[in-house]
Specification:
The chain has 6 helices and 25 strands. It is an alpha+beta fold and about 350 residues long. Strands 2, 5, 6, 8, 12, 13 and 16 form a 7-stranded mixed β-sheet that branches.
């Protein structure tokens, strides 16, 4: 029998559906799995012991490393305000055994170091009376006392801390509402948006307050209004400033619009004293929409309709009319006709 025939014979014997063979194969597989599990358990046990021994040995050694430590500044010079950016963490180069270093690494929120600025010698920057610097090598001993006794502080970075101070002052600053809203069709605002108080006392660095002319409220969206609005507006947050209060009252009064009509005379601009012009018509009808509370303000004297004598010099048969003045409260203002005929005569 050739080698190919022998292989086929062996393969067929292995694939014959023999329950006895399957049972022996299953038992063999289970024994192998149990043996493998026992070996892995022994291996894992000795591996864990090795790791523990290695870790204990490593932690018993002394190391030098840099820890990023949070810092809290306090005790600024009296009547002064810090206006510069200062680092919120210091790099501390320390020497310690592995145990306290590992404890720090796993500490989520280490207690910040207290840095009383006025307790240290501050050097003034040449040519600037507002800027000072502190060399951190002179504060090492005081900061080290706040650390664990197991940590020996070697160096602090940065080596220099810069501070800029300003005088703290207070003054009244006007407020400005920052609102986004629309008025429903057929309505209008009775008066401007009213806020109370209109100004507040603000305390902060003089270099900021000297250039601050108005405080704005936080932006607020009111949508479309068809009725009065009453509410509070929060004052926008300005860094380094303290407010007398954090919110103001706001009022927006809404009323319905009504249509008005008024007859307004036409004025001639640039007419020589020796001439006279009579327009046809002499008065034009002006229409518009205005709030009910301001209806009585619509009188002819509140308008000015003009034609120009220059159009006469150009031999135009009709003079174009322009509305130069109208009440601010009047909306959709229109007049008719847009041009007038005229008769020119000598006085």
């Amino acid at each position: 029998m050739s080698w190919l025939g022998s292989f086929l014979y062996f393969y067929l014997q292995m694939t014959i559906d023999d329950p006895g063979k399957k049972s022996r194969l299953s038992e063999f597989t289970k024994e192998k799995q149990l043996e493998w599990k026992r070996k892995m358990l022994v291996f894992s046990f000795f591996l864990a012991i090795s790791i523990v021994i290695w870790l204990l040995n490593a932690l018993s050694k002394e190391y030098t490393t840099v820890l990023k430590y949070p810092v809290a500044y306090s005790k600024f010079p009296s009547e002064k305000v810090l206006v510069s950016e200062v680092p919120d963490h210091l790099g501390l180069k320390v020497t310690a055994y592995g145990y306290p270093l590992l404890s720090y690494k796993f500490s989520k929120r280490p207690i910040p170091l207290n840095f009383p600025v006025s307790s240290f010698a501050m050097n003034r920057m040449p040519g600037d009376t507002t800027k000072f610097y502190i060399l951190t090598r002179y504060v090492r001993e005081r900061l080290e006392r706040q650390l664990s006794s197991e940590l020996q502080l070697q160096e602090i970075s940065p080596d220099t801390l810069m501070f800029q101070f300003a005088n703290e002052v207070s003054r009244w600053v006007p407020l400005e509402p920052n609102l986004n809203f629309e008025i429903e069709k057929g309505f209008t605002v009775i008066d401007d948006v009213v806020i109370s108080p209109e100004s507040i006392m603000v305390t902060g660095p003089d270099i900021f307050l000297d250039t601050l002319h108005v405080l704005s409220t936080e932006r607020r969206f009111l949508g479309k209004l068809d009725k009065n609005f009453r509410g509070n507006l929060k004052i926008a947050n300005y860094p380094n400033l303290n407010y007398q209060k954090t919110a103001v009252n706001c009022a927006i009064s809404i009323e319905k619009l009504t249509e008005v009509q008024v007859r307004v005379p036409v004025q001639v601009v640039g007419l020589p004293d020796s001439l006279r012009i009579q327009t046809f018509p002499q008065r034009l009808t002006v229409t518009g929409m205005i709030g009910l509370s301001k209806y009585e303000r619509i009188v002819p004297e509140a308008f000015r309709l003009e034609v120009s004598y220059g159009d006469v010099l150009q031999n135009k048969s009709r003079l174009e009319v322009q509305m130069k003045i109208k009440p601010e409260e009047l909306t959709s203002a229109e007049f008719y006709p847009k041009s007038v005929e005229y008769l020119l005569s000598v006085k």
